[in-house]
Amino acid sequence: MENVYVWLGLFITFILIEIATYNLVTIWLAFSALIVSLLSIWFDNSPLQIFIFAVLVVIFLLYTRPILNKYFIKDKFHSDFKGHKVVIVDKENGTYIVKFKGSKWNAISNENFNSGDVAYIEGFEGNKILIKK
């Protein structure tokens, strides 16, 4: 019965981390811990509970995370940064290096830029920023 409190404690911890980050990182762990806490009421087998927890995390990650990322995180991220200003730092092999939010990113564009130019975010393609004048 003590395992119920351990799993509920993990559930609360994972929820608090998720609230702090909002990146759909620990929500899968939280859901799994909640389910295992309910199951631990009926059986007190720690190795089996840990195994069920691990299986549930994998299932949630494989089947639900891509769907939720597609509809929530990716769209939110893209729309939040569209139109933001970036500064061109350098150009390497047809890819621009830009400074955005305090770090350097790879960027691509059909337009030509020089170091020090200001560009604006048009969108994202994979892990590259699409920029325009």
Structure description:
This protein is of the alpha+beta class and 133 residues long. The chain has two domains: 1-71, no CATH class; 79-132, Beta Barrel (OB fold (Dihydrolipoamide Acetyltransferase, E2P)), CATH 2.40.50.140. It is 51% helix and 25% strand. It has a five-stranded mixed β-barrel. A hairpin with a 2-residue loop joins strand 4 (118-125) and strand 5 (128-132). Helix 2 packs antiparallel against helix 3.
Topology (SSEs and partners):
Layout: H1 2-21, H2 27-39, H3 46-63, H4 65-81, E1 85-92, E2 95-100, E3 103-108, E4 118-125, E5 128-132
Parallel strand pairs: 3-5
Antiparallel strand pairs: 1-2, 1-4, 2-3, 4-5
Helix pairs in contact: 1-2, 2-3
Task: From the structure above, extract its key features.
NfeD-like_C; OB fold (Dihydrolipoamide Acetyltransferase, E2P); five-stranded mixed barrel; 2 domains
Short description:
This protein is of the alpha+beta class.
What order do the helices and strands follow? Answer: HHHHEEEEE
> How many strands, what sense, and barrel or not for the largest sheet?
5 strands, mixed, barrel
Low-confidence stretches: none
Distance from first to last alpha carbon: 63 Å
Total number of distinct structural domains: 2
Arrangement of strands in the largest sheet: 1-2-3-5-4
Shape: elongated
DSSP, total strands: 5
Mean pLDDT: 83
Count of discrete alpha- or pi-helical segments spanning 4 or more residues: 4
- Percentage of residues in DSSP E strands: 15-25%
Q: From the alpha-carbon coordinates, what is the Rg to the nearest angstrom? A: 22 Å
**Structural class category:** alpha+beta
In which range does the helix fraction lie?
Answer: 40-55%
